[in-house]
Amino acid sequence: MHIKGIVVYLVVSIGVTCLAGLASAYAGLIVFENPNLLNNLLFIALLWTPALGALIASLAAPSHDYPRPRLWPIPAGPATRIALVVFGAFVMTHVIIAYVGWTRPQWGMSGLMTRINAMMFHPLSGPVAAVAPMVALIGGALLSIVLGATLFALAALGNELGWRGYLLPRLMPLGRPAAYALVGVFWLVWALPLLYLAFSGIDRTQDFWRLLPRFAVMLMLLSVVLGEIQRRSAHVGLAAVGLGSFFAQAYEGVWQYLFPIPVEPWTGSFGVVAIGVWAVPALFPIVIAGRAEKQSVAAPEAAPET
What we know:
Layout: H1 3-26, H2 37-46, H3 49-60, H4 76-100, H5 110-118, H6 126-149, H7 151-171, H8 176-200, H9 205-233, H10 236-252, H11 255-258, H12 272-283, H13 286-289
Helix pairs in contact: 1-3, 1-7, 1-8, 3-7, 4-6, 4-10, 4-12, 6-7, 6-10, 7-8, 7-10, 8-9, 9-10, 9-12
């Protein structure tokens, strides 16, 4: 392993995220309640600090043992499979939730319809209002799949360039289980300041502490799933599609409108049911990652320490 590069990467990625995040929140540049375009762009910039850490670590501890991660072109077939499997995991999560009876789908999606009516000059009425919820459900589901594999994947690319593109190959000599676990732990440490800022910014700090254990478990599962996508495809762009698709479904999907009443700790994108569903691709990664290519993300076992 290249210890120097790993240390530089972690210090820069986590350190810059903490300092820049706290400073931006204190200065009012990043807000989470009614954010404007600038607020959102600055938050997305924080998601790219792992890529900055990878760049600085590569300059501080150069090595020719690890190939540059592949970014482009993104193969359409694998990307489509990943986006659809992520969507399917969210469908399965909410089917289980509805079947058990913790919460029921609100097919009228009154919350979304209220938002749509507020943006229109005249509220929907008559036959249009009757079919609007189903049109919004189908259209919103399709849109979330497309956005996850494009815009959200672009935002997630900075994450993946660091965690799966730079750090994971340098930890692979420890073996896959240890490498995925360590990446998951460091990824969690990096994400916690951002998560805390998001909750404290809307005065829901207590919810942060309730969510934290489930968030940590989900990140560990995603570390395995995204790690296998990267290892099997040797393509960091596909890992970004996986992460972008997850967050598109979690935060911009139709689920919050279809199931608006959460039942802690079971429901939601980071609920116990979701964790159980995501354990499946973590245990059987061929479902989402496909078969491995000849090229591997792992470095030679005899890579010298520096």
